[in-house]
Amino acid sequence: MRLQIGFIGFGKSTTRYHLPYVMIEDNFDVTWIYNRTPKPDLETTYAKKIPGVQFTTDLDRMLKDQDLQVVVINTPPATHFTYALRALQHGKHVLVEKPFTVTEQETIQLFEVAHQQGVKLLAYQNRRFDSDFQVIEQVIRSGKLGRLVEVVSHFDLYRPEAVPAIAQKENGALYGLGVHTIDQIVALFGKPDRVGYDIRTVRLSGNPDDAFALDFYYPDLKVSVRTSHVALAGAPRWMVHGTNGTFIKQHIDRQELDLKANYFPGEEGFGEDSEDDYGRLLYHDRHGHLQDVRIPSPVGDYGKLYRAFYDSIVNEAPLPVSEEETKLVAHLMEQGFSHPSPFILEIRK
Fold first, then answer.
1. Residue 80 region by backbone torsions, left for phi larger than 0, else alpha for psi between -120 and 50, else beta
2. Is the CB of residue 68 less than 8 Å from the CB of residue 4?
3. Could you point out which of 25, 38, 182, 284 has its C-alpha 20 to 30 Å from the C-alpha of 6?
4. Is 3 helix (H, G, I), strand (E, B) or coil?
5. Strand partners, 6
6. Tell me: the pLDDT tens digits for 47-91?
7. How far apart are CA 23 and CA 248, in angstroms?
8. Which DSSP symbol is given to 158?
9. Nearest alpha-carbon partner for 94 in 105, 109, 103
10. Rounded distance, CA 105 to CA 210, Å?
């Protein structure tokens, strides 16, 4: 059974991070792409790549198509709620790019409508399918690290120049990048007891935040999540310390680099780490001997999220990102702006 899928938004998010995966899937047919204004050159290009696709500036026309089953929202964050709500009200299954919404209440409301309509609603947390995150999951499950005591996650960039921007939280680093790294911690460890927030603007005063340091406190574990836009020499993407060992993953998943280089899913080697990029695991084996080994990374593949969404729609499999996780991420992000930084917040049970 193939599902007809349409996209709201025809910018870089759709063309770079979604269509390359969906176009090679056997379970979806791309039948609609909506944009507020026409993009004739881009439409001509993709009409050749996707036979039969309809381009429109009339959203009602698209949503009233009874054969259209799935809608993907790839628009500016402040518009996600409105577009997702309209699609849900038309009885469509909906996938929403990050950040899912601007407020926790919007997230709650969308899930209420999804339940009323009997359709599926999913946050596009594609970085759960990064190679670096998948190998972290693998190493933790192996038990070789012993009891975990500290995890450090860095998503650093070097973009020292910043152009003036409207200082709204949804335009900043926490909502743009932290939405991924917070979600990864939620996926691994669930709800923390407390979170320490330090959210700053360091490049251009008056701009949205571009640096943050979050500390998640669990009963026997501390998790630190960091992002900087002025890290010329970035820290390791992950460091995981346990009572029996340490795992270090230096580099981030390479899918984004491949896509920017016009190297696409389905091509040989796409999303694969080189051996030099494999993580380093140091641990004591059962004889007490210190082992220092490289752990191959699973292949990064954002298409897995689409396949999991299909399985949920067609076969009632669990969503790859649960409703509870989506609401928790929305809560943790919004609370980051509830007090002047730095501060520590008790997380409600």
1. alpha
2. yes
3. 182
4. strand
5. 32, 71
6. 999 999 999 999 999 999 999 999 999 999 999 999 999 999 999
7. 35
8. B
9. 109
10. 25
**221-227/211-218 β-pairing:** antiparallel
DSSP 65: -
Q: Side chain identity at 37, as an amino acid letter?
A: T
- pLDDT value, residue 234: 81
Domains of the chain: 3-124 (3.40.50.720), 127-303+332-346 (3.30.360.10)
Q: Is the dihedral of CA 71, 255, 331, 326 positive or negative?
A: positive
pLDDT at position 349 = 65
pTM over 0.85: yes
CA 248 – CA 217 distance, rounded (Å): 21
> Cα angle at 216 between 213 and 222, to 5 degrees?
105
SS3 202: coil
Contact in structure between 345 and 197 (CB atoms under 8 Å): yes
Parallel/antiparallel/unpaired status of strands 211-218 and 93-96: unpaired
Angle between helix axes 323-335 and 104-117 (nearest 10 degrees) is: 160
Residues of the chain with pLDDT under 50: none
At 280, give phi and psi (nearest 5°). -110, 125
Nearby residues of 216 by Cβ (< 8 Å), 6 or more positions away? 185, 189, 192, 194, 195, 222, 223, 224, 225
Cα(238)–Cα(253) distance, rounded to whole angstroms? 12
Q: Where are the alpha helices (DSSP H) in 197-344?
A: 255-260, 303-315, 323-335
Six-digit token string for 45: 């290009």
- What are the distances in angstroms from CA 27 to CA 53, 113, 139, 289? 16, 26, 31, 49
Asked if 196 and 334 count as a contact pair (C-beta separation under 8 A), the reply is no
Beta bridge partners of 29: 4
Would strands 28-34 and 3-8 be described as parallel, antiparallel, or unpaired?
parallel
